[in-house]
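Hi R.,

Here are the chain sequences for the assembly we discussed:
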Amino acid sequence: MWAFIHKLGSPRWFYGMSAKMQPWFWAAAVLLLVVGSLWGLAFAPADYQQGNSFRIIYVHVPAAFLAQSIFIAMAVSGLVFMVWKIKVADMAATVMAPFGAVMTFVALFSGAVWGVPTWGTWWMWDARLTSMLILLFLYIGVIALRSAFTRRDSGSRAASVLTMVGVINIPIIKYSVDWWYTLHQTASFTLTSRPTMPTQMWLPLVIMLLGFYCFFIAITLMRTRSEILRREASKRWVQELLTDPMLSTATKKAR
Amino acid sequence: MIAVKATLLRDLTLLLRRRGEILNPLVFFALVITLFPMAISPDPALLAIIAPGLLWVAALLAALLSLDSLFRSDYDDGSLEQLLLAPHSLAALSLAKVAVHWLLTGLPLALIAPLLGVMLSLPTGSYAVLALSLALGSASLSLIGAIGAALTVGLARGGVLLSLLVLPLTIPVLIFGVGAVQAAIVGSGVAAHLAILGALLAASLMLAPWAIAASLRISING
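And here is the predicted structure of the full complex:
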């Protein structure tokens, strides 16, 4: 187990291993997303109050889940990078940030679209919308700070510190905003209690959630691989890989 | 402990010799407050409703404005490097610097806020709470803001970036600070809001110095 984790720290080993894992996550993501969206959009029963507009939930909730999980994943990667100086962790955190920002935006945008039929307005200064908006600003801050440094290593460490500070603050911000004002319904979907939605409605949601997570893992693996190639471009193994791709796949198979 | 005291005294002396820098945030605070009646309406009834929020947001921005210079001059003349080399806890030394910043920015802001409150026809009975909440809250703002200042001190144009990094993190302080003043106006319990502001301060006192120290090391070591 520990040997496996230690090996993950080597960019070269990570590059090889992620090549094997990547197709599985892509396949799972495509399968789950296709099944989930078909089921959710076409076959799940319409809500008795909201009609068909409730189907936005199948994009909105997974995006919101991911937006929060990605920030935590970035903070964990930042911690790993700061404590053990594992470069792969920082590369992963680098590529996760824009994706997390996009997911936050998707959650905000789908929430705004959903607001029109249900609340009658695009924007409402409600607790969850507001804390999502703040999360978006935190993402933008991390991305901006990283790119502000001319030396990549300083930028990486600064971004890691800011991500960790942010992750401590997120629950505080969330609870203070909740306390400040709330109009949004309370969470209708938790992992601990039985769902209040009928099975026909929440099962596609679970599938969509898993699909979004698989998609996130797949795209992170893919983009981390290109980040490895970019940063390790001067290393011999990368140059060998790039000059003779046939040979390297052959040697990989031989191993 | 002696080193912390020495840093405190040094920073205090340095800042007291440049009085302009202490005055600037206060003048900025007063100016921003002057803009609002002109931009919105001079109607006292309307101003009284929005006064707590205006005062808090303006004070927040004024405190933020002064943060950029917190480590800047020490970075430029190299004394920040000496602090890093000193055989004392960098967290404790940076806490001393933050304490000076609060004493000469946050506290004066809290003290002149009631005066500006009178001009915005803030309801009577909330002045003490306004000053107290600003004094408590600005201490947390100095601590949280110092993390951003330490992260951006090595950058040529860190000013706007600093606000971008720090403002989202200050939202809880703002919410409970304004909440305290509004509770005082309505006449409901103020203690809860002030207690939460105190809790935020305690938490940032505990955690922020380490983040500031780590950020200073990143900025100095390049």
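The mean pLDDT of chain B is 89. Residues 2-221 of chain B form one domain.

Let me know if anything looks off.

Best,
T.
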